[in-house]
């Protein structure tokens, strides 16, 4: 069993930056691929970014490419999402997720464990 705790959200002006963190406990997830998803008000949850277990492979949804970076520190059991050049459209609750497999996935159904979510609000 893996427990994930998301943190780092907040209110930021357009063009600003935030770094989200996801701390894992219970069982090391160094062999697990991880991902970030987000859900805006009135919309379905969508894929944002994912990383393979070693961090060597990453994937991003088109709208965040060049602005967001996913990284992980397996020694600390922590995953990060660095978000730069934020836009009002990035406003959402962000969730980290981990899966029982080393290959990355961009599907919600591919993940077994989820954080509780952290709110990101970008003002114009």
Give the total of beta strands: 11
Which overall shape is indicated by the principal axes computed on the Cα atoms? globular
Report the end-to-end length measured between terminal Cα atoms: 40 Å
Computed over alpha carbons, the radius of gyration is: 13 Å
Relative helix content: under 10%
Helix/strand order: EEEEEEEEEEE
Task: List the topology elements.
Elements: E1 3-7, E2 10-13, E3 18-25, E4 34-39, E5 46-51, E6 58-60, E7 68-73, E8 78-83, E9 92-98, E10 113-114, E11 118-123
Parallel strand pairs: 2-11
Antiparallel strand pairs: 1-3, 3-8, 4-5, 4-9, 5-6, 7-8, 9-10, 9-11
Explain what you see:
By secondary structure, the protein is mostly beta strands. It contains no helices and eleven strands.
Comma- or semicolon-separated keywords:
124 residues, mainly beta, 4-stranded antiparallel beta sheet, globular
Write a brief caption for the model.
With 124 residues, the protein is mainly beta. The protein is built from no helices and eleven strands. The radius of gyration is 13 Å and the shape is globular.
């Amino acid at each position: 069993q893996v427990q994930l705790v998301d943190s780092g959200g907040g209110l930021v002006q357009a063009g600003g930056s935030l770094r989200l963190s996801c701390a894992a406990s219970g069982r090391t997830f160094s062999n697990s691929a991880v991902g970030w998803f987000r859900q805006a008000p009135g919309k379905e949850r969508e894929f944002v970014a994912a990383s393979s277990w070693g961090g060597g492979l990453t994937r991003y949804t088109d709208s965040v490419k060049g602005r967001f970076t996913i990284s992980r520190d397996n020694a600390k059991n922590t995953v990060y999402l660095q978000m730069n050049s934020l836009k009002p459209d990035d406003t959402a609750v962000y969730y980290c997720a981990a899966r029982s497999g080393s290959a990355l996935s961009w599907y919600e159904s591919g993940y077994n464990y989820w954080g509780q979510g952290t709110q990101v609000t970008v003002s114009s």
